[in-house]
Amino acid sequence: MELAFGPPSSFPPAKTCTRETDGFPTSRRVPFKLYDQRGARSVACCATQRAQVPELSLENEKHNLLRAVQETQRGLITSADQRSNIEEAMVNLECFCSGVPIDLVKLDGTWRLQYTSARDVLILLESAATLPFFQVGQIFQKFNCLDQSNGGVVYNVVKWSIPTLLEEDNGVTLLVSAKFSVLSARNIYLQFEEVTFEDINISGELQALIAPALLPRSFFSLQILQFIRTFKAQIPLGNQDRRSVGGLYYLSYLDNNMLLGRAVGGGGAFVFTRAQPL
User: Fold this and answer.
1) Of 4, 6, 12, which Cα lies nearest the Cα of 34?
2) Coil vs helix vs strand at 94
3) How far lies 104's CA from each of 44, 56, 157, 172, in Å?
4) For residue 91, what are the CA distances in angstroms to 62, 65, 88?
5) DSSP secondary structure string, 185-229?
6) Is 207:229 a contact under the CB 8 Å cutoff?
7) Coil, strand or helix: which one is 35?
8) For residue 37, with 0-12 CB atoms within 10 Å meaning exposed, 13-18 middle and 19 or more buried, which class applies?
9) pLDDT tens digits, 3-16
10) Which of 80, 91, 242, 268 is 20 to 30 A away from residue 48, measured at CA?
11) Which among 47, 57, 116 has a CA at the least distance from the CA of 261?
């Protein structure tokens, strides 16, 4: 990213030293110069120019990333060149807020998956592409942390369906809940708690088979429909004797409408955009 600087000749001789760069990890230090009052006006002018350039560059980088993932079917179909372009676009975007602490107010809410390289998610997408009786709809991450200071709850939400039996793309909701705690500026630790199957929406064909609309619906058939609609299966992922599975998650970029994450340890990268509340 190129920034506008005044010509070196416009500043008086200066002493060179180092300081931490705002927005970068503490391990990165860059040279800077201490100028006397004669150079203060030039420094202020350059600072204004630098502030204007990143705002436009940021929107360009976000557009480049969304364009790079657009034809990948959320990561299911990618070539080597596409993966390289996506990684480059992610890194360019991550530079804009590297080291900035996580803003839980911005993080709170629902995020729709646009792309991932995580194997556990790609397995679902691959299954939907190869199995005629399985469909995967939208995938979300929902964070509840608005009133928290160092953590909250996150839900991984997958909408899936079985053709002819359940509504297309929204037949059943798979919900994986986890508590999370903020470990450092950009790292959170997930402690998975429970898997839930809920919100079953059967297709019109199956509903007509259970309770035909042209015949009087019996109490028994109505009870079956009510049971299906309210069915909820919960599977705990841990107990008192054994802790549930956990994982480290690096939130590499966050603003009001885009979230990038990386599962630490080679678990894959994620690109999310802001969605309507579930």
Assistant:
1) 12
2) helix
3) 32, 25, 19, 29
4) 11, 10, 5
5) SSEEEEEEEEEEEE---B-HHHHHHHS-TTSPPPHHHHHHHHHHH
6) no
7) coil
8) exposed
9) 333 444 433 444 33
10) 91
11) 116
